[in-house]
Amino acid sequence: MPEGDTIWRAARALQAALGGRTVTGFKSSLPAVAAAARRLGLVGRPVATVEARGKHLLVRFEGGAVLHTHQGMTGSWHLYRRGSRWRQAPHLARVVLEAGETVAVCFRAPQVELLRAAEADRHRILVRLGPDVMAGGFDAAEARVRLRAAGDEEIGAALLDQSRLAGIGNVYKSETLFLTGLSPFTSVASLPDADLDRLIAQARRLLQANVTASAQRAGAYRTTGQARPGAALWVYGRAGQPCRRCGTLVRKADQESYDADRVAYWCPTCQPGPGPGGP
Backbone dihedral region of 165: left (phi > 0), alpha (psi from -120 to 50 degrees) or beta? Predict the structure, then answer.
Protein backbone atom coordinates (compact mmCIF):
# COMPACT_ATOMS: atom_id res chain seq x y z
CA MET A 1 0.00 0.00 0.00
CA PRO A 2 1.42 3.46 -0.84
CA GLU A 3 2.60 5.31 2.24
CA GLY A 4 2.46 8.98 3.10
CA ASP A 5 5.52 10.01 1.12
CA THR A 6 4.16 8.38 -2.05
CA ILE A 7 0.84 10.17 -1.69
CA TRP A 8 2.61 13.45 -0.95
CA ARG A 9 4.68 13.11 -4.15
CA ALA A 10 1.55 12.34 -6.15
CA ALA A 11 -0.24 15.38 -4.72
CA ARG A 12 2.75 17.60 -5.50
CA ALA A 13 2.88 16.38 -9.12
CA LEU A 14 -0.87 16.81 -9.59
CA GLN A 15 -0.78 20.28 -8.06
CA ALA A 16 2.00 21.34 -10.43
CA ALA A 17 0.12 19.97 -13.44
CA LEU A 18 -3.46 20.94 -12.54
CA GLY A 19 -3.41 23.72 -9.96
CA GLY A 20 -5.30 26.78 -11.22
CA ARG A 21 -6.26 25.09 -14.48
CA THR A 22 -9.84 24.65 -15.65
CA VAL A 23 -11.34 21.18 -15.94
CA THR A 24 -12.19 20.57 -19.60
CA GLY A 25 -13.28 16.96 -19.23
CA PHE A 26 -14.16 14.51 -16.49
CA LYS A 27 -15.05 10.82 -16.75
CA SER A 28 -15.47 8.08 -14.17
CA SER A 29 -16.26 4.40 -14.46
CA LEU A 30 -18.02 4.69 -11.09
CA PRO A 31 -21.69 5.70 -11.60
CA ALA A 32 -21.93 7.59 -8.30
CA VAL A 33 -18.84 9.67 -9.09
CA ALA A 34 -19.95 10.37 -12.67
CA ALA A 35 -23.38 11.46 -11.42
CA ALA A 36 -21.85 13.72 -8.77
CA ALA A 37 -19.62 15.34 -11.40
CA ARG A 38 -22.68 16.23 -13.47
CA ARG A 39 -24.61 17.42 -10.42
CA LEU A 40 -21.75 19.63 -9.22
CA GLY A 41 -20.96 20.95 -12.70
CA LEU A 42 -17.32 19.92 -12.43
CA VAL A 43 -16.40 20.63 -16.06
CA GLY A 44 -15.60 24.32 -16.31
CA ARG A 45 -14.41 24.62 -12.71
CA PRO A 46 -10.73 25.38 -11.99
CA VAL A 47 -8.70 23.06 -9.78
CA ALA A 48 -8.01 24.98 -6.58
CA THR A 49 -5.52 22.73 -4.77
CA VAL A 50 -4.35 19.14 -4.57
CA GLU A 51 -3.33 17.94 -1.12
CA ALA A 52 -2.28 14.80 0.70
CA ARG A 53 -3.78 13.84 4.05
CA GLY A 54 -1.89 10.82 5.33
CA LYS A 55 -2.64 8.11 2.76
CA HIS A 56 -5.56 10.07 1.27
CA LEU A 57 -5.42 12.44 -1.69
CA LEU A 58 -7.85 15.35 -2.10
CA VAL A 59 -8.37 17.34 -5.30
CA ARG A 60 -10.29 20.49 -4.41
CA PHE A 61 -12.14 22.47 -7.09
CA GLU A 62 -13.25 26.07 -6.97
CA GLY A 63 -16.87 26.19 -5.97
CA GLY A 64 -16.48 23.55 -3.27
CA ALA A 65 -16.28 20.08 -4.87
CA VAL A 66 -13.66 17.66 -3.53
CA LEU A 67 -12.41 14.49 -5.22
CA HIS A 68 -11.25 12.07 -2.52
CA THR A 69 -9.18 9.00 -3.39
CA HIS A 70 -7.48 6.34 -1.32
CA GLN A 71 -5.13 4.14 -3.33
CA GLY A 72 -5.17 1.04 -1.14
CA MET A 73 -2.87 -1.73 -2.41
CA THR A 74 -3.58 -1.23 -6.10
CA GLY A 75 -4.33 2.40 -6.92
CA SER A 76 -2.14 5.08 -8.51
CA TRP A 77 -2.39 8.48 -10.18
CA HIS A 78 -0.72 9.03 -13.56
CA LEU A 79 -0.19 12.19 -15.61
CA TYR A 80 -0.21 12.21 -19.42
CA ARG A 81 -0.25 14.58 -22.35
CA ARG A 82 -3.44 14.33 -24.39
CA GLY A 83 -3.09 11.60 -27.01
CA SER A 84 -0.16 9.82 -25.35
CA ARG A 85 -0.28 6.13 -24.54
CA TRP A 86 -1.36 5.15 -21.02
CA ARG A 87 0.78 2.81 -18.93
CA GLN A 88 -2.27 0.86 -17.74
CA ALA A 89 -5.32 -0.45 -19.56
CA PRO A 90 -8.14 2.11 -19.99
CA HIS A 91 -10.69 -0.19 -18.34
CA LEU A 92 -8.72 0.11 -15.08
CA ALA A 93 -9.24 3.88 -14.94
CA ARG A 94 -11.53 5.01 -12.13
CA VAL A 95 -11.24 8.73 -12.95
CA VAL A 96 -10.01 10.63 -16.00
CA LEU A 97 -9.60 14.36 -15.33
CA GLU A 98 -8.65 16.60 -18.25
CA ALA A 99 -7.35 20.15 -18.13
CA GLY A 100 -6.45 21.24 -21.64
CA GLU A 101 -3.57 19.08 -22.86
CA THR A 102 -3.00 17.52 -19.43
CA VAL A 103 -4.76 14.27 -18.53
CA ALA A 104 -4.72 12.94 -14.94
CA VAL A 105 -5.83 9.33 -14.56
CA CYS A 106 -6.56 7.50 -11.32
CA PHE A 107 -6.15 3.76 -11.87
CA ARG A 108 -7.57 0.94 -9.72
CA ALA A 109 -8.13 2.96 -6.55
CA PRO A 110 -10.56 1.11 -4.28
CA GLN A 111 -11.97 4.32 -2.80
CA VAL A 112 -13.05 7.22 -5.02
CA GLU A 113 -15.63 9.82 -3.98
CA LEU A 114 -16.69 13.18 -5.32
CA LEU A 115 -18.02 15.22 -2.41
CA ARG A 116 -19.20 18.67 -1.54
CA ALA A 117 -16.69 20.57 0.60
CA ALA A 118 -18.94 20.31 3.66
CA GLU A 119 -19.17 16.53 3.19
CA ALA A 120 -15.38 16.26 2.99
CA ASP A 121 -14.99 18.36 6.14
CA ARG A 122 -17.07 15.91 8.16
CA HIS A 123 -16.01 12.71 6.38
CA ARG A 124 -15.96 9.90 8.95
CA ILE A 125 -12.46 8.73 7.96
CA LEU A 126 -10.79 12.06 7.26
CA VAL A 127 -11.90 13.69 10.52
CA ARG A 128 -10.37 10.82 12.52
CA LEU A 129 -6.91 11.06 10.97
CA GLY A 130 -4.09 11.71 13.39
CA PRO A 131 -1.28 14.22 12.79
CA ASP A 132 0.15 13.77 9.30
CA VAL A 133 3.88 12.98 9.47
CA MET A 134 4.38 14.77 6.15
CA ALA A 135 2.57 17.98 7.13
CA GLY A 136 4.45 21.23 7.60
CA GLY A 137 2.48 21.97 10.74
CA PHE A 138 3.00 18.51 12.21
CA ASP A 139 2.07 18.34 15.91
CA ALA A 140 4.48 15.86 17.53
CA ALA A 141 2.97 16.37 20.97
CA GLU A 142 -0.51 15.45 19.72
CA ALA A 143 0.95 12.43 17.92
CA ARG A 144 2.47 11.21 21.20
CA VAL A 145 -0.84 11.70 23.04
CA ARG A 146 -2.65 9.64 20.42
CA LEU A 147 -0.05 6.88 20.46
CA ARG A 148 -0.06 6.81 24.26
CA ALA A 149 -3.83 6.24 24.17
CA ALA A 150 -3.19 2.87 22.46
CA GLY A 151 -2.38 1.47 25.92
CA ASP A 152 -1.55 -2.24 25.82
CA GLU A 153 -1.65 -2.40 22.03
CA GLU A 154 1.59 -3.47 20.34
CA ILE A 155 3.59 -0.51 19.07
CA GLY A 156 3.85 -2.04 15.58
CA ALA A 157 0.07 -2.10 15.30
CA ALA A 158 -0.36 1.35 16.86
CA LEU A 159 1.98 2.94 14.30
CA LEU A 160 -0.29 1.68 11.50
CA ASP A 161 -3.43 3.14 13.05
CA GLN A 162 -4.08 6.23 10.93
CA SER A 163 -6.17 7.80 13.68
CA ARG A 164 -3.03 8.00 15.82
CA LEU A 165 -0.40 8.97 13.26
CA ALA A 166 -1.28 9.43 9.58
CA GLY A 167 0.94 8.35 6.72
CA ILE A 168 2.92 5.42 8.14
CA GLY A 169 2.55 2.04 6.43
CA ASN A 170 4.16 -1.34 6.90
CA VAL A 171 7.50 -0.40 5.31
CA TYR A 172 8.13 2.64 7.49
CA LYS A 173 6.71 0.91 10.57
CA SER A 174 9.32 -1.84 10.26
CA GLU A 175 12.19 0.48 9.36
CA THR A 176 11.40 3.04 12.07
CA LEU A 177 11.20 0.39 14.78
CA PHE A 178 14.52 -1.09 13.66
CA LEU A 179 16.27 2.28 13.74
CA THR A 180 14.93 3.03 17.21
CA GLY A 181 15.79 -0.46 18.51
CA LEU A 182 12.28 -1.45 19.55
CA SER A 183 10.47 -4.73 19.01
CA PRO A 184 7.23 -4.32 17.04
CA PHE A 185 5.53 -6.44 19.72
CA THR A 186 6.37 -4.12 22.62
CA SER A 187 3.25 -2.68 24.26
CA VAL A 188 2.77 1.06 23.95
CA ALA A 189 2.04 1.24 27.69
CA SER A 190 5.54 -0.07 28.50
CA LEU A 191 7.31 2.64 26.48
CA PRO A 192 8.38 5.91 28.09
CA ASP A 193 7.48 9.18 26.41
CA ALA A 194 11.08 9.57 25.27
CA ASP A 195 10.83 6.38 23.19
CA LEU A 196 7.55 7.49 21.63
CA ASP A 197 9.11 10.85 20.78
CA ARG A 198 12.08 9.09 19.15
CA LEU A 199 9.74 6.90 17.10
CA ILE A 200 7.69 9.83 15.91
CA ALA A 201 10.77 11.87 14.96
CA GLN A 202 12.38 8.92 13.17
CA ALA A 203 9.26 8.13 11.16
CA ARG A 204 8.94 11.74 10.12
CA ARG A 205 12.60 11.90 9.12
CA LEU A 206 12.37 8.76 6.97
CA LEU A 207 9.23 9.79 5.12
CA GLN A 208 10.45 13.31 4.48
CA ALA A 209 13.79 12.02 3.21
CA ASN A 210 11.96 10.03 0.55
CA VAL A 211 10.34 13.02 -1.12
CA THR A 212 13.62 14.60 -2.18
CA ALA A 213 14.39 14.84 -5.89
CA SER A 214 16.98 12.04 -5.70
CA ALA A 215 14.59 9.75 -3.85
CA GLN A 216 11.84 10.46 -6.36
CA ARG A 217 14.17 9.53 -9.21
CA ALA A 218 14.96 6.26 -7.42
CA GLY A 219 11.25 5.50 -7.39
CA ALA A 220 11.32 3.27 -4.29
CA TYR A 221 11.46 3.34 -0.52
CA ARG A 222 14.97 3.89 0.80
CA THR A 223 15.93 4.05 4.47
CA THR A 224 19.55 2.88 4.59
CA GLY A 225 20.78 5.70 2.37
CA GLN A 226 22.04 3.13 -0.13
CA ALA A 227 20.78 3.27 -3.71
CA ARG A 228 22.19 0.00 -5.05
CA PRO A 229 19.68 -2.80 -5.71
CA GLY A 230 18.81 -4.85 -2.64
CA ALA A 231 20.46 -2.45 -0.19
CA ALA A 232 17.74 0.16 0.34
CA LEU A 233 16.00 -1.25 3.43
CA TRP A 234 17.18 -2.43 6.85
CA VAL A 235 14.67 -5.18 7.63
CA TYR A 236 11.47 -4.85 5.60
CA GLY A 237 11.11 -7.76 3.17
CA ARG A 238 14.40 -9.32 4.36
CA ALA A 239 13.17 -12.26 6.44
CA GLY A 240 15.83 -14.97 6.71
CA GLN A 241 18.61 -12.63 5.59
CA PRO A 242 21.39 -11.34 7.88
CA CYS A 243 20.79 -8.08 9.70
CA ARG A 244 22.88 -5.37 8.09
CA ARG A 245 24.19 -4.35 11.54
CA CYS A 246 24.73 -7.53 13.54
CA GLY A 247 24.30 -10.50 11.20
CA THR A 248 21.38 -12.05 13.09
CA LEU A 249 18.75 -13.43 10.73
CA VAL A 250 15.86 -11.02 10.24
CA ARG A 251 12.53 -12.47 11.34
CA LYS A 252 8.97 -11.90 10.23
CA ALA A 253 5.60 -12.65 11.79
CA ASP A 254 1.99 -11.65 11.35
CA GLN A 255 0.89 -8.70 13.44
CA GLU A 256 -2.74 -7.76 13.81
CA SER A 257 -3.22 -4.08 12.97
CA TYR A 258 -6.08 -1.61 13.04
CA ASP A 259 -7.48 -2.66 9.66
CA ALA A 260 -5.94 -6.02 8.74
CA ASP A 261 -3.15 -8.43 9.57
CA ARG A 262 0.23 -7.08 8.55
CA VAL A 263 3.68 -8.68 8.54
CA ALA A 264 6.26 -7.39 11.00
CA TYR A 265 9.96 -7.61 10.14
CA TRP A 266 12.57 -7.19 12.88
CA CYS A 267 16.03 -8.17 14.10
CA PRO A 268 15.70 -9.90 17.48
CA THR A 269 19.21 -8.79 18.48
CA CYS A 270 19.01 -5.13 17.47
CA GLN A 271 15.38 -4.93 18.63
CA PRO A 272 15.28 -6.81 21.94
CA GLY A 273 11.95 -7.27 23.63
CA PRO A 274 8.87 -9.43 23.27
CA GLY A 275 8.28 -11.52 20.19
CA PRO A 276 4.95 -12.43 18.64
CA GLY A 277 2.60 -13.72 21.30
CA GLY A 278 4.50 -12.19 24.21
CA PRO A 279 7.92 -12.41 25.93
Answer: beta
Query: What is the percentage of the chain residues whose pLDDT exceeds 70?
Result: 94
Asked if 52 and 8 count as a contact pair (C-beta separation under 8 A), the reply is: yes
DSSP state of 133: T
Q: Which residues are catalytic?
A: 2-3, 55, 262
First to last CA, the chain: 30
Polymer length in residues for the chain:
279
pLDDT value at residue 214: 52
Task: Name the nearest CA neighbour of 183 among 209, 162, 157.
Answer: 157
pLDDT tens-digit readout, 29-38: 999 999 999 9
Transcribe 225-259 into DSSP letters.
S--STT-S-SSTT-TTSBPTTT-PBPEEEEEE-SS
